[in-house]
What does this fold into?
Amino acid sequence: MNILSFTTNSKIKFLSLRKPAFILSLVLIICSVLIYSFKGLNFGIDFRGGTLIEVETSESENLSNLRSILNNLELGDIQVQEFGSAKNILIRVEQQAGGDQIQQNVVNIVKTALNTSLSSDVNFRRTEVVGPKVSSELIKAGVIAIVVAVFAMLVYIWFRFEWQFSLGAVIALIHDVLLTLGIFSLLQLEFNLSIIAAILTIVGYSMNDTVVVYDRVRENLRKYRKKEIIDLLNISINETLSRTIMTSVTTLLALLSLYIFGGSVIKGFTFAMIWGVLVGTYSSIFIAAPLLNYLKVKRDWSVSSAVESTKNN
It folds into this structure.
């Protein structure tokens, strides 16, 4: 029996695991909040401010040698990493005290040091300077973008379904976002604008998964009017399981390819997406759907509304 036929005809009692799943998620959320409180996020230059320089050398250079050269400049925290190939290098220099002119001087200092210390020819392909004012504005904009996205999903589900569905979906979304922030804080992965984009994508992906399950729940609420809500939710999850698994697997295959072969520049983004797909799939099945049982979703609001309308007439 292949996995597709198994998931199509599955009769797994997912709701029997709802309490362990809720406890696990609650523990992970608390841990994420605590880790974030103590360690914070490893903000990239986008949010901390600083200087980004992309260089291309005619010959492969030893990164340790480059770090040694740049650390001797005493410019504070400097990160050096390959960008696509051994000849393409990204240099990140932390924000310097002073105005914009000081940040521009950093670029000239780095260029002079590399031109005089390296034997190979150096081509400076890109330089970016992010000041403290811009970086603080980017942090605010990133937070606002995530909050607005979650709120928009709340309104969308409320109009499309009922408030129980809307609340369940948003709780699942908040769960996914908090766990993503927690893993980035724990591993101290660089958190930049591309990660904000990844989180917004995770919100959309998780919501799409949840809506598929909720659509089937709504259909089954009308179809099985006397069936226990726990059994009805199990049926709905199992009926959409093949679609959920196939979508997640195909998405993960593409993301894993990008993570392995896409280079260091997009590693953070693809890691966030991989984590988001896993967490989003989990929350759609074990968080969003079981919450409908606790929120006392109506058995069939369309029929009850029609009956009320008939009585009133």
Remarks:
- Strands lie at 42-43, 50-57, 78-83, 85-94, 122-130, 190-191.
- The radius of gyration is 25 Å.
- DSSP finds twelve helices and six strands in the chain.
